[in-house]
Amino acid sequence: MTDYGSFAPEVLTLERVLLTASRHPRGIALDTGSARLTYAEFAGAIGGCADRLARLRLPRQSRVGLVGDKVPSTYAWYLACWRQAHVVVPLNPENPVAANVEICRAAGVAAIVADPPAHPGLIASVRDAGVVVVDPADADPPSHRPGDEVRPGDLAYIMFTSGSTGRPKGVQITHGNLVAYLDEAVPRADAGPGARLSHTYALTFDPSVHDMFAAWTSGGTLVVPRGRELLSPAFYVRERGITHWYSVPSIVAYARRSGRLRPGSMPTLRYSMFVGEPLPLHLVADWVDAAPNTRIRNAYGPTELTVTCVEYELPADVTAWPATSNGTVPIGTVHPGADWFLLDGDKASAAEGELCLRGAQRFRGYLAPADNPGRFVRLTDGSAEVLMDEPGTVPEQWWYRTGDLVRVVDDGLLHLGRADRQVKLSGRRVELGEVEYQLASHPDIFDAAVLALPDGRDGLCLRAAVIGNPRPLEEMRTYLLRRMPRYKIPTTVIWLDSFPVNRNGKVDHLALRELLARAS
Q1: Residue 165 has what pLDDT?
Q2: What is the overall mean pLDDT for the chain?
Q3: Which long-range contacts (CB under 8 A, 24 or more apart) does 226-235 make?
Q4: CATH, domain 422-519, list 3.40.50.12780, 3.30.70.360, 3.30.300.30, 3.40.50.10800
Q5: Bridge partners of residue 359, in order along the sequence
Q6: Cβ of 264: how many Cβ atoms within 10 Å?
Q7: In the structure, what pLDDT confidence band is assigned to residue 502 with cuts at 50, 70 and 90?
Q8: Among 250, 279, 283, residue whose Cα is nearest residue 414
Q9: What count of Cα atoms within 13 Å lies in the side-chain half-sphere of residue 245?
Q10: What is the pLDDT of residue 505?
């Protein structure tokens, strides 16, 4: 169905989008429900936004903050940044102003594209820091003039993930990384003219990259949800004619709990992929009942490895589905373009361990070199050497340590959980240390411990134990909401005189888990 395979490997993503636009000028590139842009209109809008950026006379590879409001202009500005060889730094409109300001500071943002009426606090804060503000409505007339040359080693975007120190880490993805991912992932999706792809992710979550470019490099349509449509996936799929679905499993779990996932309710779906957290087999069974014509793929990949790097497709015959030790769908096989091994202690393992990868999709290192030590490893005769210095660009021969434990099974790899204290909530990475750090910054809290516990609805929630002067829970929520997104706020906070400790004097997390479970 798709004509994606006609691209030469050296053709980078923006050029692929523009070539697709020239092949399908009347096709619909973007459908927000209230507006539709043809490929010809989309290409013209990209050029007009790029011309506006050119008038700023920023050096190539300047960082441009882009507030991810899901309106047509946002997507044109995204690609316009690449047209001028700049780097996109997505900003979540739901984040506290302070969090977005900190991202802009850490990334060295030179300009920000933000709607003044919608984001006055953010705009005032970055202007005070000398950042140029561009109104997204202030694009030049549609244009098809050429922009600056973009090279494979140039940065395409920087996304910030949670850090164990409480400071988000900037992940630098190049245009070469992105093309390597698209060449592996897009042909499998079998999208093309007439395909309508979901868009369930914020632009600050890198699966959104798949949403956009699986559509725009194949001739399909990106279908942006309106309002609360994602609360009812079946309605979104049915009313908007979705053919290709991509989301975290939590959306399925919510739809099932709310009774909005009925058998046969999504007949148009022919391809479904899930990523971001473990995929329970029982949830997939309900999804297949609702979408009987769909293929199911489970994908895995940290932001550092450019969206996803491991995939597994469930057999069409439900009776042939695997039975796994933890009831989740295997993550499957690593993309052919990547090397991998399992790290068990300081040795390579053939059976189980921390997944380590390298290859064309591996990022070049964190924005702050201080975040690199401990995250990369090199093998010599089966023994591991961990990178402990702070290179800005990590040598290609080093493997990235994902922090995820996997086991080799008949169907490839099975995800077992995190090797560290990082967890995923609705597909979004959260370092428990980051939440503890923010709690402990409160003047009445001396120490904090946070755990992720089952929420009783097929997911996890954060619960905290703190030492200090007790304050009302709502006061604590208000304090934290000024510093973190809502999904990182603990649902329970208990006040203790001291933490339980083990024989080594360390916090006894098992005892703490029991305390928090009883308190809930």
Answers
A1: 43
A2: 92
A3: 226/32, 226/33, 226/34, 230/200, 231/255, 231/258, 231/260, 232/258, 232/260, 233/260, 233/261, 233/266, 234/260, 234/261, 234/262, 234/265, 234/266, 234/290, 235/260
A4: 3.30.300.30
A5: 338
A6: 11
A7: low
A8: 279
A9: 34
A10: 47
